[in-house]
Design brief:
The protein is of the alpha+beta class. It has 3 domains: 125 residues, Beta-Lactamase, CATH 3.30.450.20; 86 residues, Orthogonal Bundle (Helix Hairpins), CATH 1.10.287; 163 residues, Histidine kinase-like ATPase, C-terminal domain (Heat Shock Protein 90). It is built from 11 helices and 11 strands. The strands form 3 sheets. The protein has a 5-stranded mixed β-sheet. The relative contact order is 0.08. The structure holds adenosine-5'-triphosphate and magnesium ion. Magnesium ion binds next to helix 9.
Length: 380
């Protein structure tokens, strides 16, 4: 055996050093292409990431790793040309594994020149799907957190204002009541009646604001969502109008939830009225109760947990993506003045979060809207 043939001397031989290095790497696909993109070498990283063994790929064109539409559009050849012209081609893109699944690849292609002649390319590919997914998850949590902080800040601001208004309106209503007892004139009584109705409407709005700011004192009690909804079935159908059918899909034997009954009824009514307004030409509203495994959007740390859920779904006009982050804010409305005060979903939001739950919104413009209120099951 000569010196260089002994395994431990392999580290002193430059070409074997390189082969050892490339063949030890499993996190990166490192391989060589000829001028036309035909694969000439392969490493264990390539096999791990793309699924093919060396025998399966050597001698075939590297365009097989691209999505069919990219390959058809000539992306692989363009990348080689860029590498040759600019000295390097760096990029990220979706590629296909042997089993047909897709992965996001970070790719570097370097041209190999020998004596001024292009003889092929060195290609390094890394699977960055996981990194990309982790980044997307992080962005989602950051977004939810920001949204939660924004709602918290608006809530605090609203709360002070709503308290003052509530007190003022209480005084106005009481005084009007007292005046109406003394006034015998029928025209004046009518005016007082109108003023009372307006003040009561004002008090109602400020109560909605208080719920949003979590300033409303709730009286939670253990409730069966399905049973409570059965009691308001008639009211909900009447509020939806004749053109709309309200379908109830209420599951029996659900775990109880600890919520304020009046607030729950107000929340469902708000949701049903919104759905009604989104379907001026009629349609269907589905009111559903069930248990779903859902994840609190702000506490990514928590695993998805079973929640007792109340869903109101319609096939109305939907909410444009740009509005979706804002609909729970107080005073956000797209309805004409006098038609909407923008407090319905704020009440829904305040009530649900104050009850330990969270709302989930999904909507597609032109197709419909689904709002799910998720509550923790009540454990006595
Ligand atoms: N089911 C739905 N379909 C389409 N858009 C909706 C739906 N629910 C809510 N929205 C949109 O969200 C906005 C805010 O709703 P929210 O209930 O808070 O206020 P509002 O209905 O406008 O007024 P209010 O409920 O105080 O009378 C609505 O103006 C509407 O643009
Ligand atoms: Mg509303």
């Amino acid at each position: 055996m000569t010196q260089l043939q002994r395994p431990k001397d392999a580290l002193n031989d430059e070409s074997r050093q390189l082969a050892l290095l490339v063949n030890s790497v499993t996190d990166y696909a490192i391989y060589m292409l000829d001028k036309d993109g035909v694969i000439r070498t392969w490493n264990p990283g390539g096999q791990r990431i793309k699924g093919y063994s060396a025998a399966e790929v050597i001698g075939t064109n590297f365009s097989r790793f691209y999505l069919p539409e990219d390959a058809a559009a000539g992306v692989p050849q363009r990348n080689l040309r860029t590498a040759a012209l600019e000295g390097r081609c760096i990029g990220e893109g979706w590629r296909v594994r042997q089993d047909g699944t897709r992965f996001l690849a970070s790719v570097v292609i370097d041209p190999i020149w020998v004596d001024g002649e292009l003889i092929g390319y060195a290609k390094v590919t890394r699977d960055i799907t996981e990194r990309q997914e982790a980044q997307e998850r992080l962005q989602k949590v950051q977004h939810s957190l920001l949204q939660a902080q924004k709602m918290e800040a608006i809530g605090k601001l609203t709360l002070g204002l709503a308290h003052d208004f509530n007190n003022l309106l209480t005084i106005i209503v009481n005084c009007l009541d007292l005046i109406s007892l003394r006034v015998k004139d029928s025209a004046a009584s009518k005016l007082i009646e109108t003023a009372l109705r307006a003040a009561e409407r004002g008090a109602f709005l400020s109560r909605q604001l208080l719920t949003f700011g979590r300033g409303q004192k709730l009286s939670p009690e253990p409730l069966d969502l399905s049973r409570t909804l059965r009691d308001s079935q008639e009211l909900l159908q009447r509020s939806a109008g004749d053109q709309i059918s309200v379908v109830f899909d209420l599951h029996d034997d659900l775990p109880l939830v600890l919520v304020d009954k009046a607030q729950l009824e107000a929340a469902v009514l708000n949701l049903v009225c919104n759905s009604r307004d989104a379907m001026p030409n009629g349609g269907t509203i589905t009111v559903k109760t069930n248990v779903q495994v859902t994840q609190d959007p702000v506490s990514e740390a928590h695993q998805p947990l079973p929640h007792v859920c109340l869903t109101v779904e319609d096939d109305g006009e939907g909410i444009p993506a740009a509005h979706q982050a804002r609909v729970f804010e107080p005073f956000f409305t797209t309805k004409p003045v006098g038609r909407g005060s923008g407090l319905g979903l704020s009440q829904v939001f305040g009530f649900t979060t104050q009850s330990g739950g969270f709302p989930m919104l999904s909507s597609i413009s032109g197709e419909g809207t689904r709002i799910v209120l998720c509550f923790p099951a009540y454990e006595p």
